[in-house]
Amino acid sequence: MDQVWNVDGRVVVNWMTCDWEPYPAIDGGETDLMWHPVRAEPGPGDGTYLLKVAPGGGAKLHHHSGQEEFVVLDGELIDGDNTVLKTGDVVSYNPGTRHSTSSPKGCTLMVWIQKPIDTVEGDPQIAAMQEGRTIVNWKTADFERYPSLPETADPIDWHNIRANPQTGEGLSLINFLPGSSSSLHEHTGWEEFIMLSGELTDPDGMTYRTGDVVSLPPGSIHGSYSPNGCTTAVVIEKPLRTLL
Ligand SMILES: [Fe+2]
Ligand SMILES: [Fe+2]
Questions:
Q1: Which end of the chain, N or C, is more open, meaning fewer C-beta atoms within 10 Å of its C-beta?
Q2: Is there a shared CATH topology between the 18-137 domain and the 142-242 domain?
Q3: How far is the CA of 152 from the centre of ligand 1 (A)?
Q4: Is pTM, for the whole model, over 0.85?
Q5: Domains of the chain: which residue ranges?
Q6: Residue 59, SS3?
Q7: What is the Cα Rg of the chain in Å?
């Protein structure tokens, strides 16, 4: 059979073993953040990256011009309204929100940010931030059957946080049941996910393990198989196309 999959340009990095470098802060004034860019440029604050906040560190008040989303991988992050974001929390902020954060004990985050962020001054606009924020802990979330699979596909469950059920576009938690696989599909934009538990194998034989962050460029074609089940948090930039 001809090879139909395409994972050219894929990046895989594990947050528990990767190296870290100082985060190139927007205003140059912060030294308490380290990062590992997955698909991000220094400066504007958008892209996909791992971020490590040293104890006592945090982010100044800033405005989100696009969606900002992250998973708390370890530690705790205190949001601007004093909400404690704990390990396992998956958090989404709508465009137009702003917040500052602090982390007395330190934390590590997997971050997806759609558009550049701007440090701002003045009113923190907390009510608007709360209105535009969603928090789901992946360990306690309710899952339901993923709606877009053809009837022959093995079962995959999901928790939709900010996703289009028809196209997969957006942020969701995906739970592969043991022995299940996703249908072969093509990505018209970026797909970037983190393995929260378990293992997942792509058609080229690459197995993603717990802690791996995977970035697949537009044009990627794959279907993944999980012998023992796994849970991921995924951001899909543009619609995916199922190939039958
Ligand atoms: Fe933010
Ligand atoms: Fe995919």
A1: N
A2: yes
A3: 40
A4: yes
A5: 18-137, 142-242
A6: strand
A7: 18
CA 62–ligand 1 middle distance (angstroms) = 6
Q: 67: CA distance to ligand 1 center in Å?
A: 9
Cα of 219 from ligand 2 centre, angstroms: 10
Ligand 1 center–CA 63 separation, angstroms: 7
Predicted confidence at residue 147, as pLDDT, reads 83
CA separation (Å) from 185 to 13, 33, 161, 191? 23, 36, 21, 11
In the reported structure, the alpha carbon of residue 59 is separated from the centroid of ligand 1 by a whole-number distance in angstroms of: 8
CATH superfamily of 18-137: Jelly Rolls (2.60.120.10)
Ligand nearest to the CA of 61: 1
Q: Which helix (H) or strand (E) holds 78?
A: strand 77-78
* Amino acid occupying residue 85: L
Within the chain, which residues score under 70 in pLDDT? 1-2, 26-31, 148-153, 244
CATH superfamily of 142-242: Jelly Rolls (2.60.120.10)
Nearest bound ligand to the CA of residue 132: 1
